[in-house]
């Protein structure tokens, strides 16, 4: 737990005190969020070249513009020659020279960005999932149920799946907060079906595919088979609907002929 906290400190921006978002690597080897760097430059009278993702907060921008933006030390009004941009690093408290391009000269620290993203995923995975049916204080969930779309502790799972009822047949799964809909299961191997055998015109699982009965058969993924069959049915339905008026007219004519014949 302590090591995780120490790691989290290394992944926090020194300006916004939150985890880095699109971190930029400064020449002094420290990092800062892109948006935070833009706001720091604005506070010191520089106008960074802002992308769509690095727009400063409107209230701060208005305040800076009203306070006489563009008159920072070393710059004369209407100066033609470009000035180098000095950035006060919030980590080492030194003024870092960014050159004439300012933030445009900095590289995005993609390695740090990936580390932050993986850390976020680790925190989400390691977070305890609590039972959704316990009375306070809640116990940690130990089982999940795809049919009920809920997570339970051991006692609550037994309580909501009483013996002798249909719910008792629900199979427990690991607890989770996002329940994926249960797919169709192969009746032979109790595995989820993933492919469609065109020759047999049936759904098959991974174990079915390796059997000799499907050796020379045409097998495609379920999604491909679904899209092909759906397209075929759509065309057939469109043809039927377009011919509906013609068929109704023919039926009416046949009915008139039958009446005439009976008379």
TrEMBL record:
Coiled coil: none annotated. It comes from the Eukaryota. GO terms for biological process: anterograde synaptic vesicle transport; axonogenesis; microtubule bundle formation; neuron migration. It is found in: Cytoplasm, Cytoskeleton. Pfam families: zf-B_box, zf-C3HC4. PANTHER family: E3 UBIQUITIN-PROTEIN LIGASE TRIM36-RELATED, TRIPARTITE MOTIF-CONTAINING PROTEIN 46. Transmembrane segments: none annotated. The keyword Zinc applies. Keywords: Coiled coil, Cytoplasm, Cytoskeleton, Metal-binding, Repeat, Zinc, Zinc-finger. It comes from Nesospiza acunhae. GO terms for cellular component: axon cytoplasm; cytoskeleton; main axon. This is TRI46 protein. Its main location: cytoplasm. The lineage of its organism: Eukaryota, Metazoa, Chordata, Craniata, Vertebrata. The keyword Metal-binding applies. GO terms for molecular function: zinc ion binding. Residues 181-222 form the B box-type domain. InterPro entries: E3_ligase_FN3/SPRY, Znf_B-box, Znf_C3HC4_RING-type, Znf_RING, Znf_RING/FYVE/PHD, Znf_RING_CS.
């Amino acid at each position: 737990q302590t090591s995780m906290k120490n790691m989290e400190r290394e992944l926090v921006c020194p300006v916004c005190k939150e985890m880095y978002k699109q971190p930029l690597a400064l020449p002094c080897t420290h990092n800062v969020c892109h948006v935070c760097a833009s706001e720091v430059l604005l506070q010191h009278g520089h106008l960074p070249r802002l992308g769509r993702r690095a727009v400063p907060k409107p209230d701060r921008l208005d305040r800076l513009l009203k306070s006489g933006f563009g008159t920072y030390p070393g710059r004369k009004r209407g100066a033609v020659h470009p000035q180098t941009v000095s950035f006060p690093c919030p980590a080492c408290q030194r003024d870092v020279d960014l050159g004439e391009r300012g933030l445009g000269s900095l590289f995005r620290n993609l390695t740090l960005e990936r580390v932050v993203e993986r850390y976020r995923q680790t925190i989400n995975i390691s977070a305890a999932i609590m039972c959704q049916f316990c009375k306070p204080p809640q116990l940690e969930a130990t089982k999940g149920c795809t049919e009920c779309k809920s997570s339970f502790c051991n006692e609550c799972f037994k309580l909501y799946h009483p013996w002798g009822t249909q719910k008792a047949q629900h199979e427990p799964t690991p607890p989770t907060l996002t329940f994926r809909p249960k797919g169709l299961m192969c009746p032979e191997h109790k595995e989820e079906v993933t492919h469609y055998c065109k020759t047999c015109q049936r759904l098959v699982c991974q174990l079915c595919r390796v059997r000799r009965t499907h050796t020379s058969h045409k097998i495609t993924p379920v999604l491909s088979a679904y899209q092909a069959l759906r397209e075929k049915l759509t065309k057939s339905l469109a043809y039927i609907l377009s011919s509906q008026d013609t068929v109704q007219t023919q039926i009416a004519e046949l009915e008139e002929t039958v009446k005439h014949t009976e008379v």
